[in-house]
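Table S2 (text version). Query chain:
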Amino acid sequence: MKYVITIGREYGSGGRFIAQKLAEKLDIKFYDQNLINKAAEESGLSVSVFKNFDEKRDSIFSATPSFYSYDISLGQKVFLAQFDTIKKIAATESCVIVGRCADYVLKDEPNLISIFICAPVEEKIKRVVDYYGISPEKAPNLIIKMDKKRKSYYNFYTDAEWGKARTYDLCINSKIGIDETVDAIIAYINAKFGNKNN
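Corresponding structure-token output:
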């Protein structure tokens, strides 16, 4: 059966690593940065434009006024292009998609599992220092900044709340470990689909 797993995540929670390992274990496609490339190719916009607006909230002043109406901004064009690409991917294959409001975009998909990964601050700081080479002094502020950016983007483009448990099928704290989190997600998938995904 075809199904889609979306992963929302706090910065430094290991969400991307979890998503990648999950896709490998389930033998399905993994989409993160490669989704940007695919959306750029299909929309005709450049990859650099997508990267510039990636998971960034548009400004309410960024639309260009015309005499009769407002044209949509470049940021909104990027979001809509990603929206279309996510829809096309979900229609054709099982996959894991990281971020980019994918859970909201696919909310009407019957075989969607939306997941949010969080972690204690100290765990996130350690991961940001160890994996991204950020200094321990700068890591806390960077984590706050990135999470604010993701929350603002998600809340701007959806009618749900980023990181709120009721928004997702499953919220999990990755302090149990990356592999353990992946196993817990797989257990949930099997419980929901009755092992039909195997």
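Notes on Table S2: The beta strands are 4-9, 29-31, 64-65, 70-71, 95-98, 112-118, 170-173. Helices lie at 15-26, 33-43, 47-53, 74-92, 102-105, 121-132, 139-157, 178-193.
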